[in-house]
Amino acid sequence: MSSDNLSFLNYPEPQEGPKVPYKNETQTIPVFRGTPLAIGATLIHNIGFIQSQFWRNAGFDVIRQIPHLNEYAGRFDPTVIPVDNAPSGDVPTPPVQRRKGDKYYYTSADYHALYSSGELTPLAVVETLLPLVRRDVTPAGKHSTAFLESQVDIICAAAEASTERYKKGQPLGPLDGVPVAIKDEVHVTGYKRTLGTKLDFKHGTDATSWCVQQWQDAGAIVIGKTTMHELGLDTTNNNPNFGTPRNPHNKTYYCGGSSGGSGYAVSAGLVPIALGADGGGSIRVPSSFCGIWGLKTTHGRVSGAPSLSLAPTLGVLGPMASSIDDLALAYRLMATPAPASQDAISAQFPKPLPLPADRKRTKKIGIVRDWIDRAEAPVRAVFDSALDYYRQHGYEVIDITIPYIPEGQRAHVLTIVAEISSGVDPRQIRHLSAPNKVLVSVGTWQITAQDLLTAQRLRNLIMKHIAYLFKTHPGLMIFTPTTPIPGWHIDGGENELSRGLSDGKTSVRNMEYVWLANFMGCPSISCPAGYAKDSGVPVGVMAMSDWGTEEDLIDFARDGEGFLDMQVPSGEDSVWEDVIGKAKEAGTA
């Protein structure tokens, strides 16, 4: 739905921010892994003086030094609610095109067509997938590192019911029988919820999140819950507790995180659609490193389940998919507003209706040049090519400014650490992996009320400026790379994977662009756009749009689909599973 035709609740007052020069410096933060990391984490966890030194060295006190912040009230929740002026009726499901060729990913349309013709059944697909993803068997499945658990009885029952519906010619819709994967952070009945830790975060509930329920009600089969970075507190998806899936395009690189398990599941061809959660802006990072599409939606905040994230004012969900069609389909289903009895905030959001094809569109891209210039050369080359493509297809490219970008990123990190720390009992910290012992200890005992309030004042300042940009330039897409680095290499090998990694410098770099949409509460989309020449790791580009304009983002991605297109992983170090091909072979054996 276009913001031109919407009214809002809680929309920021458009106000141009201070004119300040962009100034950013790459932080100098030591890297720790292995035994030094374990020793350092124990010291920081137990000694307040070392915690305070660590906090000061990270440079978070710079936020307090920003002039004029006292003129802004704190904004603790960035949720902006479009007022529903849409007619009543069902939400149409967008059409999904089938696979383009052998080098491309399967889509939900391939599964639906094969099921409808009787050539394949959902049960046959599940029987093919389970040996590949289960970690509770010996030997564990080839791709089990990406999956925390798969409840076989639940999965097979869903597959049998879907198979029976197709036999009767009564499928529930285009998603019926299609396998999907769900990040561990999200509630699913019958499954654990650990947030990537050794702890229990179900909080006594065994309900299924509203957004997952919408997929299941459409017939989708949850093939399992995927691994994530512990507490979602970094962007590698390195997890010593349950293992770390390698990048399907190059096994010496991380998938990215914190939704790296979901990113892997789509990128490796196991499922066409997966769900991630964005407590720290990282839902878009795996879609960049793994070469898939990712949409961060603020529709209903977290689509009817505000308690999904430890960080309720930051937690949002979004689908990942191997095609823009499947991304749109998954979004349209999951963004159906929840009943008021389940979530009063989600209930206020409009239905995710498609935009009229013949509407007048403003095609305008805004870039902050100094900010974009910080991308590394392989990323910048892909970004520039994508920008040229859009320019050649009718988009006007304009220069914009956003005040306090580096300071805003620090405010974002501070808020995440404070909120996640508030959801962890201090007695639980010792059970966390070494890197998170550091972050949660600092968050618990070093972040002051003044720090948190100052960060929310800065959030309000930037939100008002962003609103000013969107109202000054209707239809504006703020365009950046997804991340400035061309993948994150596993430098420490097996030792790093088994003991954890603390690399604050690369973490900050990796989040340099994605933090803005998360902290502002704006929707954004990450699109695969090319590859890093040396490593073959995918590079993504990202667009952020006005509040309530997810459908505009999908149309923007479709405009670039001729350029923004990815093939399945190939090469010596790549991993891709032809699930449909294997299921067909098994059926004819």
From TrEMBL:
Ranges where the Amidase domain occurs: 146-553
Pfam families: Amidase
Transmembrane segments: none
SUPFAM superfamilies assigned to the protein according to its UniProt record, in alphabetical order: Amidase signature (AS) enzymes (SSF75304)
GO molecular function: catalytic activity
Sequence segments annotated as region (Disordered): 1-23
Listed PROSITE patterns: AMIDASES
First and last residue of the signal peptide: none
Family: Belongs to the amidase family.
Name under which the protein is recorded: Amidase domain-containing protein
Protein species of origin: Penicillium cataractarum
Lineage summary: Eukaryota, Fungi, Dikarya, Ascomycota, Pezizomycotina
